[in-house]
Amino acid sequence: MLAVFGINSDGLNLAINMLILFLIVIYLALVYWTYMDARRRVSDPMLIACATAASLFPFLGTMTYLIVRPPEYLDDIRERELEMQAAEARLHDLNYVLCPHCDYEVEKDFLRCPSCLRKLKDPCGNCARPLDPVWKVCPYCEAEIPGVTAPRRRRRRATPDGQPGTEQTAVD
Question: pLDDT for 46-56, tens place per residue?
Answer without folding.
Answer: 999 999 999 99
